[in-house]
Design brief:
Helix content is 24%, strand content 41%. By secondary structure, it is an alpha+beta fold. Strands 1, 2, 3, 4, 5, 6, 7, 8 and 9 form a nine-stranded antiparallel sheet that branches.
């Protein structure tokens, strides 16, 4: 029995679509891990292609089939291959993919050396245009801790501190490790955060933060300075948000470099 393929029929409204596809796919993937070679995690994936003005629809199931082909090795290294496969399979001029996932790193407490896992939100966004030019962006969101310089200066006792997050987006020439980006950001805060802290660790972290107070402005400038001096980075943006402990709002700062 022959079934009519409605999606392949023509459309007479003469309106092209920039992005059409599938969004919010929950999928197990394997990513590169500097220490352990690979890491298994769960990603949320969006996949799109363009649709010409004369086409009624795209074939949604083919996105899932393509994803299944590459499920064992999703990384910055093969996004270009995935995008090329999307364009070929769906007969498209452009393709886009966004892969967001938690990335886990084992981290030792600063004094006791007690070990625990910290999760970082990572994202790979890629696109390929009709000239087969691929654009890749790596994104990492890192939890941090900051101590307010103003509070420390004006208070007779202590200073208020808060947990925050720093998000960095990067374009680059050569492959980069998420671990390197995470380390750079953690060093740019008053203190990094941990999953396991004993009393001696808590003392160390509290005093370290107090001796290294930072506004959100300080954090983004410190990260930007490091990225600006890295010849492998061609473009970046960095934002910092503090979830203020004594205000009913967040403090926020953002820097974007010039496009290379």
């Amino acid at each position: 029995m022959d079934m009519i393929d409605i999606q392949s029929q023509p459309d007479d409204r003469n309106i092209p679509i920039n992005k059409v596809g599938v969004k919010g796919i929950q999928y197990p993937i394997t990513v590169f891990d500097r220490k352990n070679s690979i890491q298994h995690t769960i990603a949320t994936i969006n996949m799109y292609v363009n649709l010409p003005r004369h086409c009624k629809g795209t074939h949604m199931s083919r996105f899932i089939e393509i994803l299944h082909l590459f499920r064992y090795e999703v990384s910055l290294k093969n996004i270009s291959t995935i995008l090329k496969q999307m364009k070929t399979t769906l007969n498209a001029a452009s393709a886009h993919i966004e892969i967001a996932f938690p990335y886990f790193i084992e981290k030792s407490a600063p004094v006791s050396k007690s070990k625990g896992l910290i999760d970082y939100v990572c994202k790979i966004a890629g696109s390929s245009d009709r000239m087969d030019v691929t654009d890749l962006i790596a994104e990492v969101t890192v939890p941090i801790s900051t101590v307010c310089p103003c509070s420390k200066e004006i208070s007779r006792y202590g200073a208020h501190n808060q947990r925050g997050k720093v998000q960095t987006r990067l374009r680059f020439k050569k492959f980069i490790w998420f671990e390197d980006i995470i380390t750079l950001i953690e060093k740019s805060a008053s203190s990094d955060v941990y999953s396991v802290l004993k009393r001696e660790d808590e003392k160390y972290v509290t005093e370290k933060g107090y001796n290294n107070p930072m506004f959100v402005e300080d954090v983004v400038r410190t990260v930007a300075e490091e990225l600006r001096d890295d010849e492998n980075i061609t473009w970046f943006s960095v934002s910092a948000e503090n979830f203020e402990s004594i205000h009913n709002h967040s403090a926020y700062a953002f820097i974007e470099s010039k496009q290379a």
